[in-house]
Amino acid sequence: MRIAEVHIHNLAIADPPIRSSYGLHQPYALRSILELKSDDGVTGIAETYGGEAPAAALEALKPRLIGANPFRLTGSLMDLIGGEGSGDARSQTMLVPGENPLDANPRTYSAVETACLDLIGKTLNVPLCDVLGTRVRDAVPFSAYPFYKHAGGGGEGDDKREDEYGEALTPEGLVAQVRQMIATYGFKDIKFKTGVLDPDIEIETVRQLAREFRMPVRMDPNSAWTVETSIRVGRELREELGAHTGGYLEDPTATIDGMAAVRRGLLAEGIDVPLASNVAVTCFADLPEAFAKNAVQIVLCDHHYWGGMRQVMQLAKICQVWGVGLSMHSNSHLGVSMMAMAHVAAATPHLTYACDTHYPWSQAKDEVVLGGRVPIVDGVIRIPERGGLGVELDYDQVARGRERYAKCPYRKRDDTAEMRKHVDPTWERLLPRW
Amino acid sequence: MRIAEVHIHNLAIADPPIRSSYGLHQPYALRSILELKSDDGVTGIAETYGGEAPAAALEALKPRLIGANPFRLTGSLMDLIGGEGSGDARSQTMLVPGENPLDANPRTYSAVETACLDLIGKTLNVPLCDVLGTRVRDAVPFSAYPFYKHAGGGGEGDDKREDEYGEALTPEGLVAQVRQMIATYGFKDIKFKTGVLDPDIEIETVRQLAREFRMPVRMDPNSAWTVETSIRVGRELREELGAHTGGYLEDPTATIDGMAAVRRGLLAEGIDVPLASNVAVTCFADLPEAFAKNAVQIVLCDHHYWGGMRQVMQLAKICQVWGVGLSMHSNSHLGVSMMAMAHVAAATPHLTYACDTHYPWSQAKDEVVLGGRVPIVDGVIRIPERGGLGVELDYDQVARGRERYAKCPYRKRDDTAEMRKHVDPTWERLLPRW
């Protein structure tokens, strides 16, 4: 089996105006789809970050892909995820995920690895998690992922979407948003994006969510706070976010040293609110220092930028050995990434929390998976009894996504620009803001 | 594809009277071969530690093997390598590898995993290292593995073997042994088993080996020394074993704290002789403490007892991330283990030294691989362009190995008993001895 064709599709998908400490989501999120077609006529697919840079990186790799044996290709590209300039550099806190040049090569590798594994699995009629060889669960739990949100459903002009969830900028608005999301998907956990409003409002919002839904709540202000504010929030929400509830506080403040100071401060008061991270810790090179300083108690993996599925499985083993939890981070995505996340989670024994997903924020009109959106029922995705990822591309939908990409002005994610356009023309990302 | 038949073969192979701090090798080493035969008529094989206990553990697992899908089986057995009583217990220093009850389950898992990967590879005609998916080398380097040795070639009665290497109990004897081994196999590194004679004789032996062969020399006394003796040997052999030469000192003394004290003592004198280990560190649970204390600079993996090939690849990633070297430990073995070691090494990017192998100490008469012994040429094993491990069983030879096992009195490895029988009836293993 050889790879005969390589296709890269740049897509734009409608994205509602949701907020984080990075700013405001633009009307379209950008995603890339990679297709590796074998000389047997089977196609392996992967989804990754979109826009110009990721597609250009995949395009530049084409000469190493064409003609390659998919069983050998992932080994022959290991230079992209080991050694100099290949993701061993350290984390940064200012750029949104997918825009960090330090993990450009691991992101490229990951897309190729996922497409190879899908191609192998589809060729053999073996589910991808069984190609990885360590499936430990058939159903993968995901969390509700509420955001503070302005009115609007995403898209622009004739392509504007219905506003499925409506505005949510108050505690009551968030409770309504979560109620709707749980009614649709059956989630059993809540991961709440914060760092947007005054911490006292966000504290009150968490309290209302915990009281209303009586399920684990996790809070992610994306480094928006000082060490002192982080400790104060942890103190005030010790009952809502404490380890005993299955909750956590994610990246309250920037840097490994900042996180370590928050943890020390909370423990000094006898408060066990564990700290999760996908900002202070985003690559393997961060782990020894982060663990030595007790800066993170949960690492949030993401096969898209940690160098692929096998690397995430290695990360999980590391976390298990060091007694650190593991869950999964997410970004705006379609059904191909959704299934990839589900498969790697199914093959990862040490997965200690329900995973994040932005999937509820995308809509059927943008889905590129044949047959429509991936079902999330009772908060879980079931691994289908089909080869590879278990999903195929709907090429009409891919064509529509490419058209939207061609028409829209966005070529990389820029939450600051959107914030200035719609909320405050002088807005700057401040770290810390509170 | 389903597993239709499971066969376990207990073999005895002639083993020459070689010495270590554990004592003296018995005339036969014991090995087990596992066969998993699919309903398509393809057979996957693995070799592991022999004798009664490993075979009984595999036998007890049969109900979970028969009828299983080999792509799913390794996932469904993950309980053997995670959680309580499954290799997460800590290391011990008194028992020889393969006799440590703390890693019984990981050893059982490893045999099943190797046989599944071989079965998958043979079914698909894909080399095993490409089933693992991260092949980074086509040729795997191994080291010469000289031992202090009494006269004799192993075997008993009519089954006595020719003494290929002769007695070697002096520096000159060891030089002659290594010369012969290098002439036959082309090794480019020397791993020297010590802890047998007075340290001054062993120091002189290392000096003569280094002077004569001008290649990296590694010295392994298996915990025979005090911290003080270890530091003295490191000091005297700083030029022969130093990091700048590619050498190391392996398990000079027992326990993580002992190793850490040796490292501190050497560094305090400005001596960079790195310490390797497969005694102080034998399982994942040892790593955080060992790294935090800087007790080991090289971990010696072994897929047989670390829980299999994928676990060894995860160990290698851990070592890479923490800046620790990785090489491979060995025990008396046949060609099936030889190829398994070569494949996992081929698929492990972070392999920083030539691997150990006892293969020169076994003979063609005992080999169970069809076509005879695995070739080591210029010190490397090349990955064959064949499916799975690339070797098949010679069933006549398996039958002879079973006959030898039935006839011989040995049911577990006991180097102390042999030492008492042939060298000193009062011999006890002393840690430390010097």
Characteristics of this structure?
434 residues; TIM Barrel; 6-stranded parallel sheet; Enolase-like, domain 1
Helix content of chain A: 25-40%
Q: Segments of chain A where pLDDT lies below 50 for 5+ residues?
A: none
Oligomeric state of the chains in view: homodimer
- Summed up, the helix count of chain A is 14
SSE ordering of chain A: EEEEEHHHHEHEHEHHEHEHEHEHEHH
Most extensive contact: A-B, 39 and 39 residues
CATH class of the largest domain in chain A: Alpha Beta
Mean pLDDT of chain A: 96
Distance between the termini of chain A: 56 Å
What is the annotated CATH architecture of the largest domain in chain A?
Answer: Alpha-Beta Barrel
Q: How many strand units of chain A?
A: 13
Let me know the largest β-sheet of chain A: 6 strands, parallel
Sheet with the most strands: spatial strand order of chain A: 7-8-9-10-11-12
Structural class of chain A: alpha/beta
**What is the global morphology of chain A?**
globular
